[in-house]
Amino acid sequence: MEAALQEEMGIAADLVKGDRGIFEVRADGDLIYSKKACGDEFPTHTEIIRLLRARQ
User: Fold this and answer.
1) Which domain holds residue 35?
2) DSSP-derived secondary structure for 39-52
3) For residues 51 and 32, is the Cβ–Cβ distance under 8 A?
4) Average pLDDT estimate for 28-51
5) pLDDT value of residue 17
């Protein structure tokens, strides 16, 4: 996903390891995706890019 974000949007992503299967995507401190809130499904690269673009 980091490579897709760099290629599509020109931004660098930071991976912060969590525990217990937590997967969240934050932009500027704002939560834009939570695996737990979405029924334990991992997002596609396209979905995360769409969510980030919607913030612009």
Assistant:
1) 2-55
2) TSPPPPHHHHHHHH
3) yes
4) 91
5) 82
Judged against a pLDDT cut of 90, whether residue 39 lies above it is answered with no
In 1-56, alpha helices (H): 2-9, 45-55
Average confidence score pLDDT of the chain: 89
What is residue 15's three-state secondary structure? coil
Residue 46 has pLDDT above 90, yes or no: yes
Number of domains forming the structure of the chain: 1
How would you label 20-55 residue by residue, b for 16+ Cβ within 10 Å and e otherwise? eeeeebeeeeeeebebeeeeeeebeeeebbeebeee
Q: Could you give the CA distance from residue 34 to residue 39 in angstroms, rounded to a whole number?
A: 9
Q: 45 and 1 in contact (C-beta within 8 Å)?
A: yes
Question: Structure pTM?
Answer: 0.80
